[in-house]
Structure formats: structure tokens, C-alpha cells
Design goal:
- The structure is a single chain.
- The chain has 200 residues and is mainly β.
- It has 2 domains: 82 residues, no CATH class; 96 residues, Immunoglobulin-like, CATH 2.60.40.
- Helix content is 4%, strand content 39%.
- It contains 2 helices and 13 strands; from the N terminus they run H-E-E-H-E-E-E-E-E-E-E-E-E-E-E.
- Calcium ion binds next to loops.
- The site of calcium ion has 6 residues, from loops.
């Protein structure tokens, strides 16, 4: 990477700055995102999202760069790991929202790739269908575990769980319990239950 001149003037009052050598960001303690706080949105359904950043404690104005979803507390409620550019500790945000029904699914491919990357999973319960794709590398410089996470509200069972593998194989399971982590192996007629969620 080579040094370069600024394209225009910087408004320092708004936190703008220019470094001709971007490798010196950490050394100069500057903030690449001009202190824009991280934001968290709550899915309200029907394509509506509420900005709940101020409620989460995750609205740090640090240089957030990598974020992954992980369940660090073992209760199937997803937590967040955030890494800042330029140093600072890894930030862990424990999910303190009211617990909801959850289902985790991981895959083991036999004809497809080992982790089922690219597989499409559909969970049908009641009047709802949730579709997820196994694609763990979902943001800049961060990769999360190869796990599909469904929020299923109060549903105790998934009426129909369908896995469409990259190989073309399709598997369907009916009456799948929630509150667990399932491991589904390609073309195997039964699934394995790995974790049962801890009760609060
Ligand atoms: Ca958790």
C-alpha cells in the first residue's frame, strides 16, 4: 500500500482526518469512523426495524469492525462479540433481552462440503416460515461458527424443517423440538441433538 494525499479538506470538528499512511492509524490513536456509534436494530416484523442501540449498551463509538453472533452463555440466546479496529479489548455483549424460543442447527455434509456452507434451511411453524442460508463469513474480518439460528417465539415444535444441500439433496424432518441444537447429517434419516438449552 502506498501513501496518498487527501482528496479534499477535512472538517476536524466533525472528527474527520486524513492520514497519508493508513498503517499508522493505531499509532496515532485516531478513529476511522469519526466516532459514529455502533447500532443495533430490532426486527419488528413486516420489514420494520427499531433502532434500540441506546438500550443495548452496544452503541460504543469505537471503531467497530468485526461482529459475530455467538452463544457464550449456553442458553441458545444469541450474544454478540465485537472487535474494534486499532486495539482495545474484545467486547462481549451478553443477551439480556427476555428469552424467546430458539433452535440451532449445524450441518455435516457427506456429498456436499463438510459444514454445509451454502445449504438453505427452512423452518415452518404455525403460519410462519423462516429461511436461512449457511453462510458464516458474514462481515468484514469476522467469521462466526457454522450454525443456523432460528428465533421461534413460543413454538415448542417446528412443524417441518427442510434442508436443501449444495449437492441437491433435500431432507425434511417433521415435529422437530425447539430449545435444542440439532446436527443434521446429509442423507441421514435422523438428526442428532447436541445441546438442550438451559432453563433460566
Ligand atoms: Ca446466550
Amino acid at each position: 500500500m502506498h501513501s496518498s494525499d487527501a482528496a479534499g479538506s477535512c472538517d476536524e470538528e466533525r472528527g474527520e482526518f486524513w492520514l497519508s499512511d493508513p498503517w499508522k492509524v493505531g499509532e496515532t490513536k485516531r478513529n476511522l469512523s469519526a466516532y459514529e456509534p455502533n447500532q443495533v436494530f430490532l426486527n419488528m416484523g413486516a420489514l420494520r426495524f427499531a433502532n434500540i442501540s441506546y438500550l443495548t449498551g452496544a452503541d460504543s463509538d469505537g471503531d467497530g469492525r468485526g461482529v459475530v453472533v455467538a452463544d457464550v452463555t449456553g442458553d441458545l440466546q444469541p450474544d454478540l462479540l465485537v472487535r474494534q479496529s486499532g486495539g482495545g479489548p474484545l467486547q462481549v455483549f451478553r443477551n439480556g433481552f427476555p428469552k424467546t424460543g430458539r433452535l440451532e442447527v449445524s450441518l455435516r455434509g457427506t456429498k456436499s462440503n463438510a459444514l454445509g456452507i451454502g445449504a438453505r434451511i427452512e423452518a415452518q411453524f404455525g403460519e410462519r416460515t423462516i429461511v436461512r442460508q449457511m453462510f458464516p463469513a458474514n462481515n468484514f474480518l469476522a467469521t462466526q461458527a457454522s450454525v443456523i439460528r432460528f428465533g421461534v417465539e413460543s413454538a415448542k415444535t417446528i412443524d417441518r424443517l427442510t434442508v436443501r444441500w449444495p449437492s441437491g439433496s433435500v431432507q425434511t424432518f417433521e415435529g422437530v423440538p425447539t430449545g435444542v441444537h440439532l446436527r443434521i447429517t446429509e442423507d441421514k434419516s435422523t438428526y442428532d441433538t447436541l445441546v438442550v438449552a438451559r432453563t433460566p
